[in-house]
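Because showing beats explaining, we let one protein speak, sequence and backbone structure tokens together, and leave readers to judge.
___
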Amino acid sequence: MLKDYRPTSAGKRVRRSLVRMVSKKRPEKTLVKMMVGPVAKSGGTISSRHRQRGARKYYRIIDFKRDKFDIPAKVVAIEYDPNRGPNIALLNYADGEKRYILVPEGLQVGMTVVSTRKDDKIEVSVGSTAKLGIVPLGTEVHNIEMIPGRGAQMVRGAGNVGIVMAKEDKYVNIKLPSGEVRRFQADCLATFGRLSNSELRSVNLGKAGRKRHLGYRPHVRGVAVANPRQHPHGGSYKDNGVGMAPVSPWGWKTKGKKTRRRTSTNRLIVSRRQKRR
């Protein structure tokens, strides 16, 4: 649910925030750790341009493998995670262990989820995990494995969903959020449901300060740079655009140059995503 504000200030005039339905504010102490690296420290060098540390926060350890098979788990809390778009759910397994998972739409406190690798038919319940080979056609899934046992790598963003389109021998065709249809091994795990916070794309921060809190620094366009020594697009700033093939400050081709190098997986792509018009 989105929330608008009264225009009591310039920042609140256009601000639009997402109201997250959470039941617990403080994270589980055993499932958090400090952010490491130069970004998490007050000093040091940040190698990525236009980024900074941002507000201090803990990292929540998410269970992307879902490798506690055939042990029911009860949802005891829905929490906010500052490191990702969807909410996270705290699971309490029957053996006493606790883990975090991403929250799909419809998952509520008190519900029970389970993960299984059996080849038997399973009831499609939101938040449960099963092999793609037994998932019915047309089912919405997320947290999809690319290699069995490695853990979920695909469809993990807020509001994202993959749809099971077809089954061919040992492969399952899934339509990804980008529109691309890709083949996955039938033994790969996937979780039922569409991820929460689908309205996150409509959020308007309202002011530059909130962007800085998220870890972003100002970004100056290349054509706005006064000296070509600072950027290849710099120099005379007119309305004629770049005036050359767009490049990075170090001369690398950008905007349209294909950067995909891993061609060995092309055989798994059934249809490419549609190009933007």
